[in-house]
Amino acid sequence: MKLHSLLEYLPFAKQIGDHNPEILSIEQDTRKVMEGTLFICIKGSIFDGHTFAQAAVEKGAVAIVASEPVKVDVPVISVPDTNRAMAILADAFYGHPSQKLYLIGITGTNGKTSVSHMVQHIFNEGKKKTGLIGTLYTKIGEDTFETKNTTPDSLTLQKTYHQMVRSITDVVSMEVSSHALVNGRVWGSDFDVAVFTNLTQDHLDYHKTMDEYKQAKGLLFSRLGNKYDTKHPKFAVLNADDDASSYYESITSAHILKYGIEQAADVKAFDIQFSNKGTTYSVKTPVGESVVHVNLVGIFNVYNTLATIAVGLCYGLPLADIVTGLSTFQGVPGRFELVNEHQEFPVIVDYAHTPDSLENVLTTVQSMAKGRVFVVVGCGGDRDKTKRPIMAQIACQYATDPIFTSDNPRSEDPQAILKDMEAGVTDKQYKVIIDRKDAIKYAINEAGKDDIVLIAGKGHETYQIIGEQVLDFDDRLVAREAIRNRV
Ligand SMILES: CC(=O)N[C@H]1[C@@H](OP(=O)(O)OP(=O)(O)OC[C@H]2O[C@@H](n3ccc(=O)[nH]c3=O)[C@H](O)[C@@H]2O)O[C@H](CO)[C@@H](O)[C@@H]1O[C@H](C)C(=O)N[C@@H](C)C(=O)N[C@H](CCC(=O)O)C(=O)O
Ligand SMILES: Nc1ncnc2c1ncn2[C@@H]1O[C@H](COP(=O)(O)OP(=O)(O)OP(=O)(O)O)[C@@H](O)[C@H]1O
Ligand SMILES: N[C@H](CCC[C@H](N)C(=O)O)C(=O)O
Ligand SMILES: [Mg+2]
């Protein structure tokens, strides 16, 4: 594609230098630049991409997009905001791929990974070719690719959509983080369905207030568009039982489909029955009623399945097929994952790392336990500090044996993080074991028949970040070893 054809998408951009080179790729990272690349200078939190412009040219870049003056011998496209330009150019360069996919974006504090997998599963079962983008990985059909972010930057995203279109993907189920919405990573993504799971405290280091955080998530709904034609209707799938939904309803012009248990909802669950094996409930929808069975426990999973049913209905999947699909869903790695070494008590690894998710998962565990509830929990460093005392208090409220330990301390002093947690507890006994492996071993050695051990916070993670080091660490493997070596 010629540079000037791309620039038609940036009507007021100024070009310095009049060449019109062939653009073979677009990159924002010098480490990926090749002959024929259009290099975009992004100001990040660590580096300013403008300082790499010359290095990019030396590696073969034939044009530069910049918001600051850069001295290079190739055409420079001057724009006020390179991040916005990147999203627009990437969408154009890859041929507007998201318009060719049925794109489902899922946002909310908790449940994005869970819902995105359930959604993908029901479409897989419905014989659609699916893609998935999120915390764990990107998947195109059976192929899995590593991801650095829950929602990748706009360039990576558009490239991924392009690959999905080339693989003849029908439906993409994708997590959309609040960071991504604020950063413009999904500018140029044409969503067909936007899903809201819930809004509770997290990321107050980044968004500063809950209101700001709520508005950040709102960007998914306000940008959804208002295509009311029967071929491309847009839908906002909202949680009727979460107060924030009325705000999202007010800022979107898409069709609304609400799901819930308590308030009036289009997709509503009733007669919910839990057992140790799973959950059964009845669901009323605009297209009829059905009985749902899933091999998952916890009221939060009822919400996740309701959101999934609503998404399936937006697409036009028959209710019976959606319900059949849900019945074979086997869960997500690191989400309420059982570690089974034939021990006499359940050991559960779960990704709960927010106050609300910890409370949800602990109340579920509490309802299942006949004896003691052990919880091994910590809080991440360089993240929202205000959630630390609240999570500690919740651990003490619902567990008989709370054990505070390290999560990913990152650049912070692990002792200081634990002190922040302890500040939330006044009248309850808890144990502090700074080394996560020792904390897991302790809980597993202490637990007996009728008890449950919950290891919270790191779920699927296979590393622990301490200072600058990324060390191998997997709660599931550590727990397995501890069970085998139980004393
Ligand atoms: C704070 C933040 O969001 N940072 C993101 C940002 O990195 P950054 O701002 O540090 O970028 P930088 O390293 O300063 O680099 C600036 C520019 O120089 C370029 N560069 C850099 C070095 C070099 O040698 N050559 C070069 O060209 C870079 O490619 C980039 O274009 O851009 C990167 C590429 O897109 C992201 O991977 C990175 O996410 C980091 C890893 C991160 O931890 N982000 C978190 C806060 C986040 O976004 N989390 C949400 C999930 C939250 C949730 O749980 O809901 C997510 O969606 O992942
Ligand atoms: N709908 C829900 N409401 C509240 N808690 C939930 C819900 N679904 C899952 N959880 C809890 O939250 C944890 C994280 O779930 P999940 O990974 O699906 O969320 P996420 O939104 O993708 O998180 P992240 O933003 O960190 O990627 C789970 O391990 C479970 O304990
Ligand atoms: N996406 C979340 C993941 C937190 C996982 C937890 N283990 C931690 O490191 O705090 C975040 O970056 O805040
Ligand atoms: Mg996730």
TrEMBL record:
Reactions mediated catalytically: UDP-N-acetyl-alpha-D-muramoyl-L-alanyl-D-glutamate + meso-2,6-diaminopimelate + ATP = UDP-N-acetyl-alpha-D-muramoyl-L-alanyl-gamma-D-glutamyl-meso-2,6-diaminopimelate + ADP + phosphate + H(+)
Mur ligase C-terminal domain ranges (all copies): 334-459
Single GO molecular function: ATP binding
A Pfam family this chain is assigned to: Mur_ligase_C
Main location: cytoplasm
Role this protein plays: Catalyzes the addition of meso-diaminopimelic acid to the nucleotide precursor UDP-N-acetylmuramoyl-L-alanyl-D-glutamate (UMAG) in the biosynthesis of bacterial cell-wall peptidoglycan.
Protein name: UDP-N-acetylmuramoyl-L-alanyl-D-glutamate--2,6-diaminopimelate ligase
